[in-house]
Amino acid sequence: MIAYRSVRHGVALSALALLASMPLAVAQQIRGTPGTPSAVVTPQGLQLPAPTQPFGGVIMPNAVDSQPAWPAQTMPPERAPNVLLILTDDVGFGAPSTFGGVIPTPTLDGVAQAGLRYTTFHTTALCSPTRAALLTGRNHHEVGTGNIGEL
Question: Which end of the chain is more exposed for a tag (fewer CB within 10 A), N or C?
Fold first, then answer.
């Protein structure tokens, strides 16, 4: 019985230590008046892309009875990294010299050497599925773009 209690207390203390070490989620704070064009929100970066803000206005059959509302302008958190993404169509992964190819791309080489190279992205031979995967962070088949999107 004593051994069981000490194990139970050890588990409880371990769980408490784990919870204490986890950062608390801070709610997004809106600066300015919500629903006006001057409102600004800074997401905490816990979810990318930032969640869509709910529409705070009222839409009525007559425009005069409707109430406008603008979503708060999203600003990056302090010290957020700058990200430059270069997406080229109809170029193989091994074509530019940046990745060991035969086509000299000295400017791209310099940019890549000063930053990092995104080398684990699944690409397709079509532009629409690749862009959809990049924008959503999901495989192109999961977002319904297994082929070229036509208008």
Answer: C
In a domain, 35, yes or no: yes
C-alpha radius of gyration, the chain, whole number: 24
Closest CA to 118 of 134, 135, 141: 134
- On whether residue 146 sits in a domain, the answer given is no
Domain membership of residue 34 as a residue range:
28-77
Tally of domains in the chain: 1
Read off the pLDDT of residues 99-136 as tens digits, 9 standing for 90 and up: 888 999 999 899 889 888 877 766 677 788 888 888 88
- Cα–Cα distance between 54 and 36 in angstroms, integer? 14
Instruction: Identify whether 117 is part of a domain.
Output: no
Does pTM top 0.90 for this prediction? no
Residue 82 within any structural domain of the chain: no
Name which of 135, 138, 100, 139 is nearest 117 in CA terms.
100
* 49: preceding bond cis by omega (within 30 degrees): yes
Q: Where are the alpha helices (DSSP H) in the chain?
A: 2-21, 106-114, 127-136
pLDDT, residue 121, reads: 67
